[in-house]
Amino acid sequence: MAKYLRKRLLEIIPVLLFITFIVFFLVFWVGDPVALMLPEDAKQEDIENLRSALKLDEPMLVQFGYFVSNVVQGDFGKSFRYGEDALPIVLERLPSTLTLAFTSMIIAVLIAIPAGIISAIRRNSATDVFVTGFSILGKAMPSFWLGIMLILIFGVIFKILPVSGNGTWAHLVLPSITLGTAVSAEMTRLVRSNMLAILQQDYIRTAISKGVKPLSLILKHGFKNALVPVITIMFLQISTLVSGALVTEVVFAYPGLGQLLVQAVSGRDMAIIQAAIFVVAIMVILLNLLADLLYKVFDPRIKYN
């Protein structure tokens, strides 16, 4: 286990370096941020002086070298928009996005696990058809469209839930449902397919012949053994929730990392973009590592080589 963990932690370094280079390369070719920092009537001399002070007049690889050396020290540069260090600004918004992602995942799990189990038990029934149809519909609906429909119904027509901002649990309901719907649809299909495969195993038939109660058979013997792939998809969907937050937070004016990143992209705020994507990348990598380590908890047969 310790050897496996050390190896996985060392693998994070080249992955982060590659992600950092790709983001830096894309940001480099977007345009000159100096044009946004100075007034339109700025003199060419002032433009060149600022570009030189920010080392934006250097070749791309040289700029990337400066950037990496600063990142190692935890310095992503100053935000052009806020005039402050980018990393603290990103970390300040991160808890709001994590709260939204966490509540969205809870909603997805509460929908997907019961629906997937019931659908597998009642295979080819009307319930199974309904659950399968929900999965397809939930996966196909664009998150921005669903968010707008929820705002229209619960915010405009019935006026029972807030449609923007942050601060109370009520502000999380509509964004969480919007984000959690697509994830629950994917998880429902996975739970259903795994349960169908598990329920046809020989040890399930043996348990039935021994008179094991149906509830114990489903939860203890069935779902527990189908849980490992579900854990995988849960942790992998964190990246989906974070990327989905880019749109959802804008739709609901939710002050999280997604809204900050969208504003940074539109304003070509390179420091914020790079810091935000770097933080999200680390979070996703560590969550995937945690998922790998949790496998052994649910399936002792797994060996770490």
UniProtKB/TrEMBL annotation:
Cross-referenced SUPFAM superfamilies: MetI-like
Entry-linked InterPro entries: BPD_transp_1_N, MetI-like, MetI-like_sf
TM region positions: 12-31, 100-121, 142-161, 167-185, 226-252, 272-295
Principal place of residence: membrane
One cellular-component annotation, GO: plasma membrane
Compartments it resides in: Cell membrane
Top-rank taxon: Bacteria
Cell membrane in keyword set: yes
Record-linked CDD domains: TM_PBP2
Keyword Transport found: yes
Residues in ABC transmembrane type-1 domain copies: 94-291
A GO biological-process term: transmembrane transport
PROSITE patterns documented for this protein: ABC_TM1 (PS50928)
Pfam families linked to this entry: BPD_transp_1, BPD_transp_1_N
Membrane-related topology note: Multi-pass membrane protein
Keywords of the record: Cell membrane, Membrane, Transmembrane, Transmembrane helix, Transport
Family: Belongs to the binding-protein-dependent transport system permease family.
Protein name: ABC transporter permease
Origin species: Ureibacillus manganicus DSM 26584
